[in-house]
Every structure is written in C-alpha cells, then in structure tokens.
Amino acid sequence: MPEMTYLEAINTALREEMSRDPSVFVLGEDVGVFGGCFGVTQGLLDAFGPERVLDTPISETAIIGASVGAAAAGLRPVAEIMFMDFMGVCMDEIFNQAAKIRYMFGGKAAIPMTLRTPCGAGLGAAAQHSQSMEAWFAHIPGLKVVMPSTPADAKGLLTSAIRDDNPVIFIEHKMLYGVKGSVPDGEYAIPLGKGDVKREGSDVTVVATSLMVHKALAAAETLAEEGVEVEVVDPRCLVPLDQDTILKSVAKTGKLVVVHEAVKSGGIGGEIAAIVAEEGFDFLDAPIRRIGAPFAPIPFASNLEKAYIPSEETIIEAVRSLA
Amino acid sequence: MMAVKVVMPKLGLTMKKGKVARWLKEEGQEVTRGEDLLEIVTEKIASTMEAPASGILYKILAPKGSIVPVVSPVAVIAEPGDDEKTLQQMVKEAEAELANTRVEAREAKKTVKEPKKRGVDLIRTGKARRISPRARRLAEGKGVDLDYVPGTGPGGRVTEKDVREYLEELDREKEPEVIPLEGMRGIIAERMTESHHRAARVTILQEVDVTNLQDLRVKINEVFQQQGRGKVSYTDLIAVLVAQALKEHPRLNGRVLEDRVELYSGVNMGIAVALDDGLVVPVIHKAHRLSLEQMSERIKSAAQRARDGDLEPEELEGGTFTLTNLGMFGVEGFTPLINPPETAILGLGTISEKPMLKDGILEQRLCMTLSLSFDHRAVDGAPAALFLSRVKEMMENPHLPFQMDAPQVSRPLVAAGRRDPRALVQAFADGMEWLNDEAPDLALGFDALMAPVFAEGELSTRVKELIAVALSVHIRCEYCIPYHVHKAVEAGAHPDEILEAAAVALGFGGGSAMAYVVTLVKECIEAFS
C-alpha cells in the first residue's frame, strides 16, 4: 500500500469522486487557484476546470446556501469552510436548512452535500481559528458527523461522505494534514458509522477522536511498558456513532477513558460516557474518566496553548488511575 | 450603674484555664477598682488579679480551688444602684455560662482524640464501601457476599479482580493440602500413637530459677569466645546437668518393655530436633561422661546433621531419656509425649523475668518451667518428683556440678532502694499535675481535703507536718516521707524535731519502722534541711 499524507488522501478522494461522478463539485474560499488555505484542493482546478472548482466570495452563508441549493437540485457539492471556527456564520444554512429539508419534504428532496472543514489547535492560531466544535453538529438530527484520524480513514470516509445522500460534516484536523500513513490502492469506501479498534488491549479502553487517537496510541505504548494494555477505539464517525464497538471494548476491559480535544464540558465525551453508563453499566469496573480541554477559550501563547490541549501525559495519568 | 462580671483572665497565648488559688475579698466586702481581688495559678505562673470595677463583691462564682476556662466568669461585682433582681438574674446567667464553658472545655478535649476513628468507621461500614458495577454483577452472579471481599482498587474500590481473586481463594480454601502419613511423618505418627496408647503418662511441672544458670552461661560463653569456641546453649548446659541427675536417679533412665523395665547406669540422651516438617531425636550416647564442651559440640553437630538428613541410623537408637525444648517459642509448660520405649522425657519451657519473693524481699529473677513426663508403669510420682527437684537444685546452683565459683551477682531491689528525696517529691508533684489535667475533680477534692488538714489551727502546720512524718513512716510510704519532711522543714521544724517525730513511729513499727527512719527519713532530713 502506498504511503501518503492525510492531506494527500483527502485530495485523492476528491479527485477520484470527481472523476467518477460528474455531479460532484468543490466550492469554497480560495479552493481554486490557491488550492485551499491548507492546500487540500491543490490541482483540482487544473484537473476539473473552473465549473467544478469554484472560488467563492468570503461568505460562509453563501457557500453553504449555494451547496444546499445545488444538492437539493441533484448535484453533490463538497464545500470547504476554511476554519471550523467560521461555521457560526453559516449555521442557519446547516442546521435549519441542510439538516431539515429531507425530513420536511418527506424524503422527496435530499441534500447530498459534504462540508469539509479543519478543526483543532496547535498552530498558534488563537481562540478564533483553533476550535473543535464537533459536538454542535452531533446534536443536530439530520446531519452526519465524521472525524477521521488517519490518511486511510480520511480517504475512505470522504468517499462515503460524498456518496451519501445526507449532509455530512467532515471534520479534518489541521495538525493531521502532514501525518503519513498507508492508504489502500484504488477506490474504496469506509461505511459511515463504523468505528475502528486502532490498538487492541485488555485492561483499559480509551475512546479517542481525531488527533487524540494518535496521543492515545502513544500513551498506550508507554503504558504497555508498565504492563497495562490499552485498547484504543476510534469511533471515526460521531453521527452515526458505533456504540457496539465501544460497548464491546468496555465489556472486555471494564474501564473507559474518553478523550477529545474539544472543551470537556458539553463535549461528545459526555455522550459516549453516558451511553456506556446506560448500556454498559454492569461492564464497568471503575468510574469513567473524560479528558477534554479546559472550559476556556484557546490561548494564543504557545506554552499556554500546549498546556490547554489534552496531552499524552494526561491520558497516561487517567489510565493509571483506573488500571 | 451596671453590675460587672469578673472573668478568668487570659494571661498567655497558650493559657486555656486557670485555677482560683485564693480570694482576697469575701462576698459582701467592698472592692475598689485596681485593688487585688484574687490570686490565680496557671500551669506556668501565679498571678494576682485586680478588681475590674469598684463596688461590692456580690457573688463568688468560682470558689477557691476551682479550675475555670479563660474568659469564663468567676465573680460578680455589684455597683451602687444595682437592684437585687437584676443582680440575681446576672448571677444566674453567669453561673450558666460558667457551667457551659466547663462542659465545652471537657467536650473539646474529648473530640480532639476522636476524628480518626470516624474515618475508619466510614470505610468499614458496608454502605460507604465503593464497589464497581462489574464487581457487583459478578458477585451477585456467584453469590459472593461482598462484605468479605477486600477492595484493592483506587480508593479501596472493590473491582472485578478483587471478586475473582476472592473466588479463587475460596476454591483454594476448600481444597485441603494433603500430607500423607508416610516416611518421617508416618514414623512420628506410629511412635506417638504407641506412646500415647501404651505409656501411663503423667506430667509434673516445676518452676526453676535460672538466674544463676544464665549468669554462668554468660561467663562460660565469655571464656569460650576468648578461646574461639562456639556458644553454649541452655540445652547444652541442662543436658549435662540432667545427665548427672539421671546417674543419681536411674529409675528415670531406662526403657519400659512388655514385661519388664530396664534401668541403665549409662545415659544415652535423646535431643528432640525440630525440622521444617517433622521431628527427629538424635541420641547423644554416654551423655553422662561428656564435659559441657563435648556435650555442646555433640548436640550442635547432631542437630545440624538432623536438619541436613545426614544422621546415621545408630544415632537414632539406644536412647534412655529425652530432652525436648519449646522455650524458644515462648511456651511455658507442656505435656510431652514419651519417646517409646523410654521411661521419661523432660520438656524445657521459655525463660522469662518474674518477680520472686526471697526471704521476704521481692526480687527480679529469670525462671524456666520444667515439664517432666514419665511412664507410671515404670516409676511412681515421688521418685519422679525427687529427680525433678534434683534437676532444679542443680540448675539453681549450677556452679556446684560445674565446679565453678558461685557467681557474684547483685540485683537492684524493686523496693526500698536508695532514691533521691527531691526526685520523689518531684515525682509526686508531677503526678498531681497530671491528675489535675486528667481528673480535675479528683485533684481538687484532694486539695480541698488537705488544705484544712494542714492549715494553721489550734495545732500549728509545723506540728501537723511532724505528725504526718510519723504517720508516713508508719505506713512506709516512700512518697509521703520526703514530702512531709520537706513540708515540716518549710513550716520551720528543726531536724531534731523531725527525727523525734519519726521516732514515735518506732514505737508502733519496731524494726521495719527503724529501717525507714535510719534510711529514707535520714536522707530526707539531710536533703531538705
């Protein structure tokens, strides 16, 4: 299997789906000539021309409004919002329009659109360019929410997202764009709503999303040296959520740590913990631990930003407290 | 005008309570602001307190001798113009306040010691225990009573692992460890059963003072150490003595067979040696001919080879008597089973310090109990007891059989020792301080009793103290004598007077009173005059 970066994997998926299906097109701020703020749409303009790679005005409302309309009319738009932090601007188009149309038209209309956006801190981009807002979207019926952690997952899940007839919020992590991994040859799709066990272990389950999957895996290495075998579960999709994979793992280990980069309060970790408490109470051999960012805006100063983002050490400490 | 409460002052940072030593005014007397009102004594200082206001000392709430927490009321001063009703109301309130603060002080003292215990209780009570859902489910499924499962998880939580380990332990506990009665165990079983069934065993006990034996052992070992030899054990010493005693009492030295008793003039002494899992009795042949040094070497070598399993068969045969020692385990006395077909076995108990009366004087001695089991088929109680008393005699005077000089030992007497009279007075004073804290009522009561007894009256304090000296001697109280001699001196008594007073006790106590007069009384007079 060839090695490629997370960014290349997403780019490849876009190319493949655009080649496969002429109704797929890309739109967003600077996605054409500039190739995207982070370079994800590099080369698409040359390959597919200005009719399928649209540079839009700086208006998130317009981008999503256009996407919802195009999708309702039968196209498969893949919109890019440059930073997830900007999604408040187009929120009505997302949660009142995109999420509701299929339901309100009794299935006669569908919104097969994909909304790609990068989340996450670590670049020193401060409070308005670093957030992880996935819990907002997971709270809205009618949206699917995907958060891939590896190049292979990013490609397979984006393929499925584009082919899906529902609006999908596809959340990329800007600190993962350069991460390399092997990606299967050719076209392939990973079904939405299927989690993945990234590492098997018998002692403690760590459910982690996006960048935190990598920190959990690194923590698991350290803990393995202490004789604690950590199972790392990546749900990959928050909606639909693969409850079975999580519950199965907790049934095995009896202990659960949930990690995400978003603020802990009101985060998706609370949802996962609650599901396990409801459905898997008898599996639990210890209290559930949640790890998330503190309830504060993301600091600009790099030392403070580093302290703000959940760390490998925090995960190790949490696992140790349960093991 | 308003009546004024007089409160116990806080004279230092650490002062918590004070004692009213003396009131300088009586109820109803006029007092002037700034005038000395009462004397206060704390653990550290004595002080005089001035009246905080002018008026009439209306009511003393804390009489002489009371111990009162700081800022609690001790008296009420009425100012001109106060009406009777208001004053009585105030006294009532102040009395209640005083009673409360005393209770609080007592409660506060109690609660200081308690909180730890509460923490323990919380953990121990079932409701406060933390049990993981997984552990609970497993326990319910297996019918495990979680009260018996110790929690080893974080914060003492009972986890699945704890329940599983408990279950495994339960399984293990059900399975007995099987030790077949074969090999050495089989032989022990067979021989002990035989002994128990056939011998008409009687066990007699005898306490022996081994103080001299210990001194001798120390002495011998000092010599042996200089000569580079191994240490001699009590067993070695006693084996030599017992072998000599058996020579004198051959009825105990022999074998009981079907139709006859065989007595031997030579002693083959079995020494019971405990192994990790078993017991063997190597026999020291011709024990009566061995010197202490030889005996010690033979026993050590036999015991070592017994533990290594290197004993020759003949070393286990031919015994005429056995010695067994459980003293190292703290056993006092026991009823050893006879090693068949021998006639008797002597068990050695632990050596412990005991108080012993010797010629009416209490002494601290080292004692060991001997347990002699003998076969009544072969020997009767009286000869067995005679043998045992001979062993005792030898052990108590070990220098005789070992032909050594009697050890010069002096041990401090428990009582009647020479002590510093000032230390005795101080010890009593310290004790009263302690009592003051622990049981203030008791201390106060004692003070209240003693004060009028020794107060100046028709008889002067000096005379009363002289009487006390005589009584102290008569009752032979080693604390009273120095205390009252001291007090008598303080009250102005001449040493001759004290001696004469003490001599009065001679009339009643004779020689033993004289012993105190010429020792402690004499020392006290010298110390305090």
What's the arrangement of strands in the largest beta sheet of chain B?
A: 9-18-17-16-12-15
The helix tally of chain B amounts to 14
Task: Give the CATH H-level superfamily of the largest domain in chain B.
Answer: Chloramphenicol acetyltransferase-like domain
Termini Cα gap of chain A: 36 Å
Topology as H/E string of chain A? EHEHEHEHHEHEHEEEEHEEHEHEHH
Q: Most extensive interface, residues per chain?
A: A-B, 9 and 12 residues
Low-confidence stretches of chain B: 111-127, 407-417
Please estimate the helix content of chain A: 25-40%
Describe the structure.
Chain A is an alpha/beta fold. Chain A has two domains: 180 residues, Thiamin diphosphate (ThDP)-binding fold, Pyr/PP domains (Rossmann fold, 3-Layer(aba) Sandwich); 127 residues, Rossmann fold (3-Layer(aba) Sandwich). Helix content of chain A is 37%, strand content 20%. Chain A has twelve helices and 14 strands. Chain A is globular, with a radius of gyration of 19 Å. The two termini of chain A are 36 Å apart. The mean pLDDT of chain A is 97. Chain B has 529 residues and is an alpha+beta fold. Chain B is 45% helix and 19% strand. Chain B has 14 helices and 18 strands. A six-stranded mixed beta sheet of chain B has the order 9-18-17-16-12-15, with helices on one face. In chain B, strand 10 and strand 11 form a beta hairpin. Chain B is flat and about 115 Å long. The two termini of chain B are 56 Å apart. About 5% of the residues of chain B have low confidence. The interface between A and B is small, with 9 and 12 residues.
